[in-house]
Amino acid sequence: MSGLIPGQVTAIADGVWRLLALNPGMMTGPGTNTYLIAADQGLLVLDPGPADSHHIDNIEAAAAEIGLPLSAVLVTHTHRDHSPATTLLRERVPGLRRLGPVAPDDGLQDDDWQPDQVLGDGDVIALGERRLRVIATPGHVGNHLCFLLEDVGLLFSGDHLIQGSTVVIAPPSGSMKDYLESLRRLQHETLHHLAPGHGDLIEDPQGYIEHTIGHRLRREDKVVRALTQHPDSTASDLVSTVYDDVPVFLHGVATLSLMAHLIKLEQDGRAHRDAGERWALQG
Ligand SMILES: [Zn+2]
């Protein structure tokens, strides 16, 4: 089940395969995982990945190896490492249906994404006898969806939960308050494995979710302590204190998640900012 080798198709569950895209990097880890899921009419392509013709070649080769035609594209969200391959795939497979959320307009999305069918919380995609249920999980970005293959408890977690790293929460579409609520919602689901957008399969999903919530709340505590020591500071002023455990080259990205923490504290009535975006604790 393990092993993340670009271009190699790996069976991860009954009727489910993973194919790693060729886009490793700081924000993508080993690269984006594309999942192929057997349905009645053919294969669903979940998160086809970045617009890279070599990855499209690999998706087509994988479908041929599996012996099913490509029937539809499904996306967890519309960041540029997850959905843009859809356009290239549709040039090769005309009429390929697009299922997923609408893209928010925050300048960080795949501008070409246009769903033929808009999916939302509670929608079910029937795969013969099996059910793939949509769970809305806003937080990483406002339109994020997870998909639960119910009979095996396999959750396609996109960038809501990835292996080996925390995800960036970039306001305004990203929201730390929503992110934590989406994590807590998953605590009520029966999950056996997570199939993340980046990294290998994750065992003990509930343990991982609890760890992730704890990690975010500890970071929030650090933000509160930093504001106690350095009131009237901007997010850029605070980042080296709050993220002193993170390499400096990541502080630019960390500042986005720090903003998300500050906005959550503001929503919780615990912090406020002035017109110059200088933050302080409330009261
Ligand atoms: Zn993303």
What is the topology?
Blueprint: E1 9-13, E2 16-20, E3 33-38, E4 43-46, H1 53-66, E5 70-74, H2 85-92, E6 97-100, E7 117-118, E8 124-127, E9 130-136, E10 145-149, E11 154-158, H3 176-186, E12 193-196, E13 202-203, H4 205-229, H5 235-242, H6 251-267, E14 271-273, E15 279-281
Parallel strand pairs: 4-5, 5-6, 6-7, 11-12
Antiparallel strand pairs: 1-2, 2-3, 3-4, 8-9, 9-10, 10-11, 12-13, 14-15
Keyphrases for this structure?
Arc Repressor Mutant, subunit A, 283 residues, seven-stranded mixed β-sheet, 6 helices, Metallo-beta-lactamase, Chain A, binds zinc ion, 29% helix
General description of the model:
The chain is α/β, with parallel strands linked by helices and 283 residues long. It has 2 domains: 9-203, 4-Layer Sandwich (Metallo-beta-lactamase, Chain A), CATH 3.60.15; 215-281, Arc Repressor Mutant, subunit A (Orthogonal Bundle). It is 29% helix and 23% strand. It is built from 6 helices and 15 strands. The protein has a 7-stranded mixed sheet, with helices on one face. A 6-stranded mixed sheet has the order 8-9-10-11-12-13, with no helix packed on it. A two-stranded antiparallel sheet has the order 14-15. Helix 5 (235-242) crosses helix 6 (251-267). The longest helix is centred in the C-terminal third of the chain and has 25 residues, at 205-229. The chain is elongated. The N and C termini lie far apart (53 Å). The structure holds zinc ion. Zinc ion binds at residues 77, 79, 140, 159.
